[in-house]
Amino acid sequence: MLHGMYMSLIQANLTLRVMQTCFKFLELAQSVGLHVNIRPGPYICSEWDLGGIPYFVLGSPKDSVSLRTMDSKYIKHVESYFKELLPRLKPYLYENGGPIILLQIENEYGSYKACDHEYMDYLTRITRHHLGDNVVLYTADGWDMHHLACGPIHNRDVLTTLNFGPNTKHHPAFHRLRSFQGHGPLVNSEFYPGWLDHWGEPHQCKTAELVTSEFSSMLSSEMGKIFVNFYMFFGGTNFGFYNGANMNNEPKYAPDPTSYDYDAPLTECGDTTEKYYAIRQLIKKLRPQLIDESIMVGIKNSTKKSYGKVKFSQMVRFTSLKNIATKKLSKTSLLTFEDLQQDYGYVLYEKIVDNSEPNALLDIQNPRDMAYVFADDIYVGKIYRAENEKLKVPTFKKIFTIS
Question: Which residues does residue 362 pair with via DSSP β-bridges, in sequence order?
């Protein structure tokens, strides 16, 4: 996946240097004999902040930008992003001797409310404009009817693939796919050997037995050859503020933690697991030509050590935050991060309140994350998007500062 942050780096004139990291990865993959399915976006995954789309594309609420549609305010950013990225990817296509065998259009668009077929068709056309007609394009979606109604692109020779894990049997999923796309290879482009975590929930796990059972069933299916791509095979990390969130229906907001270990066969720190060896043994049994025993010689998991007791020697008190703020503004209305051109981090809002009612309720309409609330520099609680509840603010005096 290519993180849409490159769109913001275009604006910052850092595009080429950062893209070189991506190209080095492609070259490394090819050097060890791996093929690449690449997902350039612009939306790549909900587990990245805003799906990888940078904050300035969303703009201020008054801009009313409709993401992932043919809204011209959104499309202008997509065009400049693809204009910079796609020509540089062209040398890495398989037809040009590179490792890229598949290129994905958007991501799981069938799960998105907009269902803008013109938008998906546009992404296909602009991709082929930059990369030519020989590149193999595909979409990836769940196998429910509403996913397949909005995600696939049926009139541009774009392969439709499915995403499902070991809890789903492949027969009904691929039979349904055949009702939408009568020909072409059967591909599970995201076979889930684990699952993502959310704050406040237990770590997600899937057993090696569960994963290898359905994997084996697909590799030996009477439906013919099925191509399987694991997601994730190697656990990852959402550094900084890049972790995203998942939602079913408001106000069910489920943010992802920094760790994206995913209970993957290779852990976040690169260790092999029982699941890894079970998958490897199954491939050796059913596709022995794919296994090279020599690469495992001398491979062992890293040694783990405890940090012991860590003493924190530096801190910043809440009362000192105003002295280190990088920008200060005085406004009559509440500004969003996008209004302030603030991508990540923290914003301190303050207002002097004339309150004659004891235990007043503070209500923030539609908070987008978490707000820590102070009254006269004393912490009184938090307002969190997932809960979206009013906060009782004790009255210390008639006039006080709410932060």
Answer: 391
Residues paired with 102 in a beta bridge: 37
With beta carbons less than 8 A apart as the criterion, state whether 37 and 29 touch: no
Structure tokens at 161: 């693939």
214 phi/psi in degrees, rounded to 5: -75, -35
Side chain identity, residue 306? S
Distance CA 3, CA 138 (A): 18
Contact 69, 59 (CB under 8 A): no
Are 38 and 104 spatial neighbours (Cβ–Cβ below 8 Å)?
yes
Report pLDDT digits (tens) over 62-82.
899 999 999 999 999 999 999
Mean pLDDT value across residues 112-130: 96
- What pLDDT is stored for residue 356 in this prediction? 65
Q: Which residues contact 400 (CB under 8 A, 6 or more apart)?
A: 352, 353, 355, 375, 376
pLDDT band, residue 396 (cuts 50/70/90): low
Task: Report the C-alpha gap between 266 and 196 in whole angstroms.
Answer: 14
Does the structure show a pLDDT above 70 at 14?
Answer: no
Tokens 């992802």 belong to which residue? Answer: 256
d(CA 84, CA 388): 40
What confidence tens digit (pLDDT) does each residue in 165-198 have? 999 999 999 999 999 899 999 999 999 999 999 9
Beta strands 159-163; 137-141: pairing state = parallel
Q: Determine the angle formed by the axes of helices 117-131 and 72-89, rounding to 10 degrees.
A: 30
Q: Residue 372 half-sphere exposure, CB side, CA atoms within 13 Å?
A: 7
Residue 113: how many CA atoms within 13 Å on its side-chain side? Answer: 5
* Burial annotation 5-15 (CB, 10 A radius, 16+ → b, else e): bbbbbbeeeeb
So which residues are the catalytic ones?
A: 108, 190
- Residue whose tokens read 């020909």: 183
Question: Per residue in 222-268, pLDDT tens?
Answer: 999 999 999 999 999 988 898 999 986 655 889 999 999 999 999 99
**From start to end of 17-64, where are the E strands?**
36-38
Q: What is residue 5's predicted lDDT score, i.e. its pLDDT?
A: 45
Looking at residue 302, the DSSP 8-state letter turns out to be P
- Burial group, residue 155, by CB count within 10 angstroms (0-12, 13-18, 19+): exposed
User: What is the DSSP secondary structure assignment for residue 19, as one 8-state letter?
Assistant: H
Peptide bond into 251 cis (omega under 30): yes
What's the mean pLDDT when you consider all of the chain?
Answer: 90
